[in-house]
Amino acid sequence: MSDAEMLGMFLNILGQGSANRQAQDRFQHSGETVSRYCSILLDVVCHLAMDVIKPLENAFNTTPKEILQDSRYIPYFKMVFMSKP
Questions:
Q1: What is the pLDDT of residues 29-80, one digit of tens each?
Q2: What is the SS3 string spanning 41-69?
């Protein structure tokens, strides 16, 4: 399977929310092959995230007041504030 086909299959599954069976039909590969190559590409994307797709150092030192004052987000910040020494 070519790199372009693997990437196309991976993006189709993610973008369309396709199941393994739908990818099998569309790309004419077995379920094992679809799973194997999706797993490989998921590992690649995760490694890419560590190397390339990351915020700049100190980019998130402060939380904007719009977020801190919005009651929808308070439950998420309570855990952070409580865990600080």
A1: 999 999 999 999 999 988 888 777 666 666 667 777 888 788 887 777 665 5
A2: HHHHHHHHHHHCCCCCCCCCCCCCHHHHC
